[in-house]
3-methylcrotonyl-CoA carboxylase alpha subunit
Amino acid sequence: MMIDTLLIANRGEIACRIIRTARRLGIRTVAVYSDADAGALHVALADEAVRIGAAPARDSYLRMDAVLDAAARTGAQAIHPGYGFLSENAGFAEACAASGLIFVGPPASAIRAMGGKSEAKALMETAGVPLVPGYHGEEQNSGVLASEAARIGYPVLIKASAGGGGKGMKVATSAEEFHEQLASAKREAQAAFGDDRVLIEKYLARPRHVEIQVFADGHGNCVYLFERDCSIQRRHQKVVEEAPAPNLPKGLREEMGAAAVAAAKAIGYVGAGTVEFLLDPVETGGDGRFYFMEMNTRLQVEHPVTEYITGQDLVEWQLRVAAGGVLPLTQDQLAVHGHAIEVRLYAEDPDKGFLPQTGTLSHLRFPEAGPHVRVDTGVRQGDAISIHYDPMIAKLIVWDVDRPAAVRRLRQALAATEVGGLAANVPFLAAIAAHPAFLEADLDTRFIERHQADLLPPPAVPSGDTLALAALGVLLERQAETMAGAARTNDPWSPWASGASWRLNDAVPEILTFRDGREGGEPQEVRAAHRRDGDFDVTLPDGSEVRAQARFDAEGRLVAEIGGRRLAVGWSRRGMELDLFRPGHHDRLILIDPLDVGEVDAAGAGHLVAPMPGKIIAVLVAAGNRVEKGQGLIVLEAMKMEHTIKAQGPGTVQTVRYAVGDQVPDGAELIIVAGDEA
Ligand code: ADP
């Protein structure tokens, strides 16, 4: 069957990426969108777009009827589900078939077979694929689960059977901790998947996550497109992915490839799939073996690294196979070329426990794409990251002839990436890329945990250069505003229209006070005066004085010469918040308004506020309770994850403002704790 119109039942970077390949193949594309995405990039890129509902995913991207209706209205013959949303929904695959549409994915039976982690493990056990020691039975009684955990031996990992994206996954290090962790895993699983069944596995100490890309067609052919190492994770979620896996012996690769192909064949697989394994390397105290974890029956987020090293377009393969074609290549024709690395750029704040951020991307610059750099994104400058969807901004993917060269490319690519308006994990990714252990490929799933101190350095005091640049930028902007204001008034010569002191007397400096945009920064005072000759005099907090010149260039970058050195920074300002970008360096500063009476205490002085909008799912204390520093007080569910609000210090709970089930806005005061010192 020919596909000449393809509907993409997804949004963001993956929708854009699929549209690109479809277009290259001469296929007409149909986007679907929610109210929140009417102006989104994927809508702009597609040939046609259909609104399918309100912003929450369950009212739009998860609505099968709306998606099928959009396909019928636009004459699409096929639906590509991307990843997430309806991609692993067997019912949707069936509904497509019932409507005479091609579902670009595996048969519903294969999705079902791998749908639950427990069922998948049982199936793989019979197919002879090695499993992590554990319990994946039907029995869900907490007593039985606890005794299974004891039999397996602590530490154990409790996983949501319906799980994905690290949700509903909790480590229990001892029997004492087991029940609390079980309850938390079940709550999270119920909230995220509407299914609270769990399985238990031995928690391996320092495994690597190595997964195999498989591909099968409807004619009995199945190949593997080698492996990806996705060991660098945070909270069991991938952060960095690469291909091939460093230091993977050739024999082991072939063995894992064969096991993955066997797994796919065991369930009559067709299309793109990924078989995830944990590798327990001898170097880190393991047995050198690999164990099946789960199979993802869709295109994976990190597929671009495989595309880079194989020179293949996996979406093209998917469309060919979906249309009934045979696999473009046989196993013998596939080979690994060079090395590719992907990092996931998220709107999240590493300084605040990686809290997802929402807001407008007021400033966005990516490295230039080319043979060595690929940027997959679904957003542009000015777009919003909303509470409704995944806070991913982009994937940066680099390629070079070998791993050290690829790591250098990655460092360069990150240095050229500028995200302003909301906090992003760029500096954190850059710190990983710069880490000697990363260069040495000393990888396992505890990498981030182990190197935490290096990867999350404490906030540094803004440098003199940064403060000088910030002051210069603010003065230049004020000057431009004043001139624009003067041009607007009836009497441009009125002294009130020309508000800038520099015009009257170049000796009067303006005092600008900044503090680091990250918490805990001390106010820093800079004096700056615009001289009659066009230069600036700048006095830094340490008392040193510099002469400077500054202007904004055509791209809006602030170009300055300070004390004889030329500096250029990306500049983005929203009200009192400033973002300054230099290669590999991002400063966030807050300009303190001198008229503001007192600053709000960042720590909230015992008034604990919601770090983002969400729903209260547990209240762990009541008024009058004594609490210790770090004790969990209230649990907020936001963006499908649980966030426990903890006591900042020892004290007594005074007021709990919300109850379980309450929806709370960003910044809502949740609970008041009277500190012991108070
Ligand atoms: P999800 O489907 O939620 O992403 P996975 O089962 O794929 O969950 O596991 C995610 C990650 O959790 C793995 O990549 C690995 O780092 C870690 N993990 C899973 N199982 C184990 C285990 N038994 N021991 C140690 N780490 C594990």
In short: Residues 346 and 425 are 6 Å apart (CA to CA). The chain has 18 helices and 39 strands.
